[in-house]
Write a structure and sequence with these properties.
globular, 14 helices, alpha/beta, about 15% strand, five-stranded antiparallel β-sheet, two-stranded parallel sheet
């Protein structure tokens, strides 16, 4: 997940495709062929979107669905710079940038009557959308550890401060959704809140952590045994384990942090009808079931999806596990994100 992992987060995505896209018209061909341009994830996590794109193209003669992996901030700059129609039609956003997108007005309100699958959404997740787009998936922030470095697995967030782990804990920079989520959960377990992060600053300084400048760098440090454990997205931990590396994922007490990714129509899209077809596909039980399975492990946002056996170490699969999920009040953090990043970099400057 930034995001998000936009990813899921921040959506740690490549920029090159986005730049090439701006030179291409959204409507292609002389015979009325249409091109739907969707901002997506990079690498393996894009595969569910690829699956849906192929299905839409097969069902709609003359349609081309183009998936553009890119950093969300680069996409936003392109949207704001466009004269007339947007170069993109729909985009995913994790919770913090989703709030900013609403505030800045470059995504549109959803029209539920245009979606057959809208009624299947989990209400608690849908409420987080603010009426702009729909919740497409969620990812978890938990603790990943390398079995070669850590003998005793952590069970809670507070365990990161155990003496036996001293010097072995990495944390993400606060510029990512991962880093912001970690800051919020540390504040809350030590008596603070989203609008009172002081306990987090104090405890993280006590931890003397190794800093990963990006979520990708942090997981690489864990794989190379430069650190023994770190707060990580469930999807990233699963990807490392799938490569045969000794990486395990813990959903720590009192619970992992869930961050929702939303899919929204972008203002001035040429193809609103196709955007709604795309979003309805995202909400289909078939898509959600596939995205919940290995190797993606995206949390489902519609009712009736069974968590596959392979996903259960990485995704809540019982009502009790779902009830343990922690959330972040991003409305209190997003407006001061810049100040938080500045303080983090100043505090943990090497």
């Amino acid at each position: 997940m930034n995001a998000p992992k936009i990813g899921r987060r921040d959506f740690a995505l490549g920029l090159a495709a986005g730049g090439a896209l701006l030179a291409s018209p959204s409507v292609v061909g002389a015979q009325g062929a249409r091109e739907l341009v969707i901002v997506s994830f990079a690498g393996q996590l894009q595969e569910p979107h690829q699956w849906l794109a192929r299905r839409m193209e097969q069902a709609t003669p003359g349609l081309r669905v183009r998936l553009v992996p890119s950093e969300s901030q680069d996409i936003v700059a392109s949207i704001k710079a466009a004269q007339g129609f947007s170069p993109f039609d729909a985009m995913p956003n994790g919770e913090p940038p989703h709030l900013i997108a609403q505030r800045d007005g470059y995504i549109k309100r959803i029209e539920p009557a245009r979606l057959r699958n809208y009624a299947n959404l989990i209400p608690e997740l849908n409420a987080k959308s603010g009426g702009f787009g729909v919740p497409a998936s969620y990812s978890l922030i938990g603790i990943a550890y390398n079995e070669r470095v850590i003998r005793n697995a952590p069970a809670s967030w507070a365990d990161m401060w155990k003496p036996e782990y001293a010097g072995k804990v990495g944390i993400p920079r606060a510029s990512s959704n991962l880093g912001l989520g970690v800051l919020a959960i540390v504040a809350k377990i030590f008596g603070g809140a989203e609008d009172n992060l002081d306990p987090a600053w104090t405890k993280l300084q006590e931890l003397k952590p190794v800093i990963g400048r990006t979520p990708t760098q942090l997981i690489q440090m864990l794989e190379r045994e430069e650190i023994g454990m770190a707060p990580i997205w469930n999807n990233d931990a699963a990807g490392s384990a799938a490569k045969g590396l000794p990486i395990k994922f813990v959903q720590p007490a009192p619970g992992p942090v869930a961050i929702v990714s939303f899919m929204s129509e972008i203002n001035n899209s040429r193809h609103s009808d196709l955007v709604y077809q795309w979003i309805d596909g995202i909400l289909s039980a078939e898509y959600q079931q596939m995205a919940a399975n290995a190797p993606y492990f995206f949390g489902p946002t519609v009712r009736g999806v069974t968590i596959p056996e392979a996903a259960r170490p990485y995704t809540p699969s019982t009502p009790a596990e779902v009830a343990r999920l922690q959330s972040v009040d991003w409305a209190k953090i997003a407006p001061v994100r810049g100040q938080i990043v500045e303080r983090f970099d100043r505090t943990f400057a090497s």
